[in-house]
Design goal:
Keywords: Iron, Metal-binding. The protein is mainly α. The protein has a domain of 158 residues. It contains 13 helices and 7 strands. Helix 2 crosses helix 3, helix 7 packs across helix 10 and helix 10 crosses helix 13.
């Protein structure tokens, strides 16, 4: 991850230095970072082996995602035109067939060990393995992070006054760990992790989840009980759940240290439902529920990204999706 982040921020620094207005958008470098990093993590595939994939793999994935998501989202054009022309039919595969086939070939040739494992351990065919890996890489991981990390960076820009405290924590912990940035070191950074959790509370990357009841049961809220019958369709809307004023004080405000021990963060994590389940507690991801399999990986990866920034820079200014100032840390 650090190797991929080095390349991302080197690119952003270069873009700022050559820009007339001395600012640079971080979105495209961020997506390139995500595609490279996640390909290595999930597929054990190196994007540098294919110049076209290294340069444009994230764009190919964006097109594939857009074609699937467009029928389900609102883009706020005049109704009923949006419903008629965007939400009333399935888009044809040929629109992205060429790009998808390139992604297939990348997985087939560069993720051979992972595909082979899927065949031997899980009895999938090669074709099934490739399609599943593309879906995990593109929809679950790349797509989710492409929504979440911009929210994280936006909040970081908005919380400029808290940078010094966050930076001090990062550097203090890293000093205790021989200045080696690792996931184990990041786990010790209470404020950094709280900042990530608060972003997930207010900006969950997947706002809605759906499921059908497997049996009759009673669903209890603070002051009422609802009877749910087997087979009924349920929807969970995360932004509403995690703004519950009976659980979270000042629920509409971004409170960067909300999830620290001092503020009862360990108890509050039981009500952090961004992953379609509690962030802490006995009910983690399993084959029998719909909780995100990356419940622990997502916040830890985001925390490492923040720690990296405060290790690399003495000052960073973010505004409207762009990096407007960077000051490298003094060695």
């Amino acid at each position: 991850m650090v190797t991929s982040l080095d390349k991302m921020w080197d690119t952003i620094e270069s873009n700022i230095s050559t820009s007339k207005d001395k600012k640079a958008s971080y979105f495209i470098p961020l997506q390139q970072f995500l595609f490279t990093f996640l390909s290595r993590c999930l597929l054990r595939a190196d994007t540098s082996t294919s110049p076209e994939i290294e340069k444009s793999g994230h764009i190919m994935m964006d097109k594939w995602l857009a074609l699937q998501l467009l029928p389900t989202i609102s883009i706020n054009i005049l109704q009923p035109l949006e419903e008629i022309f965007l939400h009333s039919f399935t888009y044809p595969f040929w629109l992205i067939k060429s790009d998808y086939q390139k992604l297939e070939n990348f997985v087939k040739t560069q993720a051979k060990d992972t595909v082979s494992r899927a065949q031997t351990e899980f009895q999938l065919t090669e074709e099934e393995a490739i399609h599943n890996l593309i879906f995990i890489l593109g929809f679950n991981a790349f797509g989710g992070f492409s929504v979440f990390l911009p929210s994280l960076l936006t909040n970081l820009g908005d919380q400029k006054s808290k940078h010094e405290e966050l930076r001090n924590e990062v550097r203090q912990i890293l000093t205790q760990n021989e200045n080696i940035l690792s996931f184990e070191a990041v786990k010790q950074m209470e404020l950094v992790n709280s900042f990530v959790y608060e972003t997930l509370r207010l900006n969950p990357p997947v706002p809605s989840q759906f499921a059908r009841a497997r049996k009759d049961f009673e669903l209890a809220s603070h002051d009422a009980v609802f009877e749910v019958k087997k087979g009924e369709l349920l929807c969970g809307y995360q932004p509403l759940v995690m703004r519950d004023s009976k659980i979270f004080e000042n629920p509409e405000d971004f409170v960067y240290n909300r999830f620290t021990k001092e503020n009862g963060g360990e108890e509050l994590l039981k009500y952090l439902y961004w992953s379609n389940g509690p962030q802490s507690g006995p009910h983690g991801p399993s084959a029998s529920n719909k909780q995100c399999a990356a419940r622990d990986t997502v916040p830890l990866t985001a925390a490492l990204l923040l720690a990296y920034l405060f290790q690399r820079y003495d000052d960073i200014t973010i505004s409207s999706g762009s990096i407007t100032a960077l000051q490298r840390a003094k060695l």
